[in-house]
Amino acid sequence: MSRAFLVVLDSVGCGGAPDAARFGDDGANTLGHIHQTVGLRMPNLMRLGLAQAAGLSDIAGEGLFGVAREVSMGKDTPSGHWELAGVPVPWDWHYFPDTHPAFPPEITAEVAKFCGTDGVLGDCHASGTQIIERLGEEHMRTGKPICYTSADSVFQIAAHEESFGLERLQDICRHMAPMLHAMKVGRVISRPFLGQNAADFKRTSNRHDYAMEIPSPTLLDWAKADGRATYGVGKIGDIFSGRGVDENRKGFDDALMGHLSDLVDEAPDGALVFANFVEFDSLYGHRREPEGYATHLEWFDEAIGPVLEKLRKGDLMLFTADHGNDPTWHGTEHTREQVPVVAAGVGRKDIGQVMFVDVAASVADHLGLSERGPGRSFL
Question: Whole-structure pTM over 0.90, yes or no?
Answer without folding.
Answer: no
